[in-house]
């Protein structure tokens, strides 16, 4: 549990994560999380991780990371991602034995897993969310037609979402956007009658800020990003591999600066060219901050806004981010538990938030609330 937070006990977090995984096509993680919730041994192992990362995602990623390296042949056979990565053929469809194999693996690799839990952070760098960021950036650009955007990604990981304009997007119904020939192809279902703007925003500068930037020039860096993906989501895993390959090519990934998204925000924002309209953004990052720290992020944005106009785009869970200015959805909104897509405009010394839409946490669908 995070200091100053009211998150449920770890066991309940794993049960909740398992239910969500079951509903989102990952029966392997459902079975594992149900088992961890009943295992004092594994809950104690997870409890040794830093408070801000004491969540189901981290141990799942740590084990996945070791499996992708070639460890744990019995457990790895349950993961379609591992089978694809290591050329093992189809994954075992039966999840009956998966938790037993998971427990055996954690006991055999206890020290390695404990080391990863103490030094790593969940860094999905989920490029699927770009399907919602793209229209949000289009909204920002439309309000500032004479200026290109200067993007600052808070909690950027490897900076893959800064490359949003190098991906191709299919929104269904013949609606597409982005780079037609890109190997990275994202599909997003549009729900509801409203249709978002899909013009590519002009960008003049892009920089990321992260406490632990992922070095794509190493073997471990890309493998960690892939390990944060879920078994059962093979298409996500494959497109992440394409995005990593694209970032490694010319002109390469954008700059990601090591630093704190609150304490170092002003310094990084000051480096954005003055001819650009400053656009801060993040997705599923503030959920790892305590509510009080989220409030400090708002104050940091307000401080930057006193020096120059800015827009702030974020895709976060309202439940997880009570300290952020998340407007409620329109009356009668049907999407419960959705991630909120929010645009905050700095007007003078005040911040004005608009809920642009609701979305799947990984960007597989988007309900646009209109351009009001």
Give a quick summary of the entry:
With 372 residues, this protein is α/β, with parallel strands linked by helices. It has helices at residues 10-23, 27-37, 40-47, 56-68, 73-76, 80-86, 98-108, 110-119, 130-143, 220-227, 234-248, 265-270, 291-305; strands at 149-154, 168-170, 176-178, 185-187, 189-191, 203-210, 255-258, 277-283, 310-316, 339-347, 350-359, 365-368.
Radius of gyration of CA atoms, rounded to a whole number: 20 Å
Tally of distinct domains: 2
Count the beta strands.
12
The CATH architecture of the largest domain can be given as 3-Layer(aba) Sandwich
N-to-C order of helices and strands: HHHHHHHHHEEEEEEHHEHEHEEEE
Distance between the termini: 38 Å
Write up what this structure looks like.
The structure is a single chain. The chain starts with 9 loop residues before the first helix and ends with a strand. The chain has helices at 10-23, 27-37, 40-47, 56-68, 73-76, 80-86, 98-108, 110-119, 130-143, 220-227, 234-248, 265-270, 291-305, and strands at 149-154, 168-170, 176-178, 185-187, 189-191, 203-210, 255-258, 277-283, 310-316, 339-347, 350-359, 365-368. Helix 4 packs across helix 10. It has 2 domains: 10-119, no CATH class; 127-216 and 253-368, Rossmann fold, CATH 3.40.50. The protein is of the alpha/beta class and 372 residues long. Strand 11 (350-359) and strand 12 (365-368) form a beta hairpin. The strands form 2 sheets. Strands 5-12-11-10-9-8-1-6-7 form a 9-stranded mixed sheet. Helix content is 37%, strand content 18%.
């Amino acid at each position: 549990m995070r200091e100053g937070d009211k998150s449920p006990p770890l066991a309940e977090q794993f049960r909740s994560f398992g239910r969500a995984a079951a509903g989102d096509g990952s029966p392997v993680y459902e079975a594992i999380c149900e088992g961890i919730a009943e295992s004092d041994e594994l809950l104690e192992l997870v409890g040794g991780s830093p408070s801000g990362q004491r969540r189901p995602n981290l141990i799942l990623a740590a084990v996945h990371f070791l499996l992708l390296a070639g460890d744990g042949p019995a457990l790895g056979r349950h993961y379609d991602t591992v089978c694809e990565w290591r050329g093992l053929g189809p994954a075992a469809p039966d999840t009956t034995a998966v938790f037993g194999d998971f427990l055996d693996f954690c006991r055999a690799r206890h020290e390695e897993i404990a080391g990863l839990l103490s030094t790593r952070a969940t860094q999905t760098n989920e490029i699927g969310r770009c399907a919602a960021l793209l229209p949000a950036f289009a909204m920002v650009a439309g309000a500032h037609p004479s200026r290109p955007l200067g993007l600052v990604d808070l909690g950027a990981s490897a900076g893959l979402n800064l490359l949003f304009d190098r991906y191709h997007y299919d929104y269904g119904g013949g609606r597409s956007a982005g780079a037609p020939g890109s190997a990275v192809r994202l599909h997003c279902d549009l729900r509801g009658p409203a249709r978002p703007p899909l013009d590519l925003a002009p960008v003049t500068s892009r920089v990321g800020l992260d406490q632990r930037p992922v070095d794509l020039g190493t073997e471990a860096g890309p493998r960690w990003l892939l390990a944060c993906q879920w078994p059962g989501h093979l298409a996500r895993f494959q497109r992440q591999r394409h995005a990593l390959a694209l970032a490694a090519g010319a002109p390469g990934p954008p700059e990601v600066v090591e630093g704190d998204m609150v304490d170092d925000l002003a310094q990084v924002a000051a480096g954005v060219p003055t001819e650009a309209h400053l656009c801060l953004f993040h997705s599923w990052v503030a959920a790892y901050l305590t509510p009080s720290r989220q409030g400090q992020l708002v104050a940091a944005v307000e401080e930057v806004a006193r020096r120059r106009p800015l827009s702030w785009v974020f895709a976060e869970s309202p439940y997880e981010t009570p300290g952020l200015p998340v407007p409620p959805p329109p009356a009668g909104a049907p999407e419960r538990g959705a991630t909120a897509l929010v645009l905050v405009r700095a007007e003078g010394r005040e911040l004005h938030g608009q809920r642009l839409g609701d979305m799947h946490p990984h960007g597989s669908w988007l309900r646009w609330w209109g351009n009001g």
